[in-house]
Amino acid sequence: MKRLINKIIILLVACMGFTACIDDFLNRPADNMTPVSDMTDIVKTSNSIYVSYRNMPESAGDALYAMGEIASDNALRGSILSDGGGLDAGKQFNQFQNFNGINPSSTNYIAALWNGLYPGIDQANINLRAFSSLFKNESDSIKKPLIAENRFGRAWFYMQLVNAFGEVPLLPEGEVTPKEYSQLTNDKSVIELYQYIIKDFRYAADSLPTKAEWKTLYNIDWQGRAHKSSGQGYLAKSLLYLAANYIYYDKTNGAVKADSCYKAIVEIVREMEPDYPALYPDYEKIFRPEGDYCSESVFEVGVSSTSDGTTYFAGWRPNQPRNYTGYGRLGPSLNLIKQYETDPVNDTIIDVRHRGTVLYGGTSPLSFMEHPAVGTFERTINGENITGVVTSNAISTGWPNRYCRKAAQPRPTSTSVNPLTNFGGNLKFLRWGEVLLIGAEAAYYTGDYDLAKKWVKQIRVRAHLDPTIVDNLSGQALLDLIWKEKRLEIALEWSNRYYEMVRIDKIHPGYMATCFNAKIEDEFAGMEKTLLKGGSIVINNTITMDIENYRTVMPLNNGLRLPRNYTMPIPTVAFTTMVNLRQTQYYR
Predict the structure, then answer these.
(1) φ, ψ at 385 (rounded to 5°)
(2) Would you state the pLDDT for residue 55?
(3) Is the pTM of this model over 0.85?
(4) Which of 199, 215, 195 has the alpha carbon at shortest distance from 207?
(5) Backbone phi, then psi, for 101, in 5-degree steps?
């Protein structure tokens, strides 16, 4: 009997050691990228994927909007003229604004994005390994939706990486040693990577719980989690990008493959319609706290702020005027403002999306347009008037002293009058408005023009615009309107417009160059108009801007080179940890 007890003790000790090894095996991320906080409960384990969204560092957040919006026709780099690269057109944020000077080591923002996104993929893989090993006795009805939740997250992070860098390495789904990690390479094409992404999103669309099922299965609310519609929406969005890459890279069969994508998108959006019978009625309020998890939410991650204004995702902070006075990193461009429809009688903007997107400070010497007056809706947010940075010293004044209204959130409760960090707002990654326009473009390509018009009309009605103008449009004019409506619907909202410009240019060459040139020329036209009215502007003690030199004084030029600027370069730091990595094709 004693010998039997000793054997049992030895077996128990061995099992304990084996369990510890399994915990270490599952919990050890590739190259020590991401720690895991809790693997004792299957739902808590799955929850950790959302920490990966929220805990991306501020520099990664900076990079997301810099690449997604500043590197487009929607925005300038904002802040004050001496910041963000100063007068050097090829430095810091100016690089993205101008496509000037971008190279693998030219800015830390490229590295920050790379390093900020891969931990999310790693966390998803860690969780998926845990589901199959630590929680193998859980029923499929409990486990499968959580597997889908993490495959959705993995696909989301990969999609951002592929859009930004093109050919990127796939992390092994199983355990990987540091040595194996160092040998990884990016030998998959953009098409193959998107096929991998779509496989995960399709699994998510099929297996994620609906909003109601989150409560039924786990007794938790859906808010802040991926759900069935999230999987469907991102499956449709990723198929739209795959279609463009089929057409661009596969000259033999790409058009046929793209057509299959478009047909699938239409069916997905049709399937989603019963869950989204109407758009949220007040566009501007979607981005206020009362719009959190509203009826239009397709994928949204919760972010809250502490009493001193520190957010879980600091990357949103620079999108808005710090302390409601200035230094917002992202400045809406004159070209964006020019796109909003106006009243033909008095030339005032009537598209309500303008009021929900652009927040104006006072007219600075570098605004190059007359901003709305103090006290108007456009100059007020959450009951506070916005001044921004308006000084007589142009080098220290706001440029353009316009801000992203969608990012401005209420002040937190605080003993400090002006907390240095701004305020958390939910990360509204995908809305029904965008999904409708994804569907409209796909319907157009399949030849179902009536369906495309139906979905565009819904967008225009919510924007308080005449929907009937769509009825008489056909051909390229209809497609141009779909693209324009999508641009205005999601402008400055998340990291989108640059990638949209690239996607469209791959199937309609010349689109990106036309859009980017229009951004630069509209800014110069605003400068010229201002200088003709007011003479000259003293930048600093040694530089004065006038009608003769304004095109060379301001850090604004057009350095766009295609197809080189279809992606950003893989950062130099990545090659120190992955020795077999190749630079993306356009920067070799």
Answers:
(1) -75, 140
(2) 74
(3) yes
(4) 199
(5) 90, 0
Q: What are the structure tokens assigned to 466, written together?
A: 């005449």
Average pLDDT over residues 149-162: 98
The pLDDT assigned to 413 comes to: 53
Q: Is the peptide bond before 344 cis (omega within 30 degrees of 0)?
A: no
Task: Kindly state the average pLDDT of the residues 377-405.
Answer: 89
Q: Assess if CATH 3.30.390.80 describes domain 2-291.
A: no
Phi and psi torsions of 82, nearest 5°: -80, -5
Provide the 3-class DSSP secondary structure of residue 168: coil
Q: How far apart are CA 340 and CA 353, in angstroms?
A: 8
Q: Is 416 left (phi over 0), alpha (psi -120 to 50) or beta?
A: beta
Residues near 3 by beta carbon (within 8 Å), at least 6 away in sequence: none
CB atoms within 10 A of CB 304: 13
Please tell me the predicted confidence (pLDDT) of residue 309.
42
Q: Which of 283, 338, 336 is nearest to 459 (CA)?
A: 283
CB 311 within 8 A of CB 301: no
Look at residue 362 in the predicted model and tell me its pLDDT. 93
The pLDDT, as a whole number, for residue 69 is: 93
Q: How far apart are CA 372 and CA 358, in angstroms?
A: 11
- Give the dihedral of Cα atoms 88, 92, 98, 104; nearest 10 deg: 120
Residue where the block lists tokens 């993205």? 96
Q: Is the pLDDT of residue 137 over 60?
A: yes
Q: What is the mean pLDDT of residues 323-336?
A: 78
Phi, psi of 46 (to 5 degrees): -65, -35
- CA-only gyration radius of the chain, Å: 25
Contact (Cβ atoms closer than 8 angstroms) between residue 402 and residue 359: yes
Cα dihedral 389→545→518→458 (10° resolution): 20
Q: Where along the chain do the CATH 1.25.40.390 domains lie?
A: 2-291
